[in-house]
Design brief:
Length: about 110
């Protein structure tokens, strides 16, 4: 039986430019492709999601502007998530591995 820890243990990240997606390989053997646009619109930072009762950027304007879904760089944040820098310079969201797995699950549906 595969544990929940293995399900959200990220082993590998890659850019799949032709598919415009980030590829994630998980500890349970799953490989998921999360589209750049879906990843960007799911940015968990306060600017994008809102905070303290205020709407976020995508609440006010859900369409993407040029460069917003251009994945420029990814980097590990501790043992729990990824930092992402977008083509427009935005880089404040931290995507936990649990959150990435949920995004990958949603992209498969």
């Amino acid at each position: 039986m595969i544990s929940d820890d293995e399900r959200v243990r990220a082993l590998r990240f890659e850019y799949d430019e032709p598919a415009r997606a980030m590829l994630v390989e998980w500890g349970d053997g799953a490989v998921q492709r999360i589209p750049f646009a879906a990843l960007r619109k799911a940015c968990p930072c306060a600017v994008c999601k809102g905070e303290m009762g205020r709407p976020g950027r995508f609440d006010l304007r859900p369409e993407l502007s040029p460069g917003e879904d251009e994945l420029a760089d990814i980097n590990l944040i501790g043992n729990y998530g990824l930092g992402v820098r977008w083509g427009d310079g935005h880089d404040t969201g931290i995507y936990t591995f649990e959150y990435l797995r949920a995004l990958g699950d949603a992209a498969e549906q």
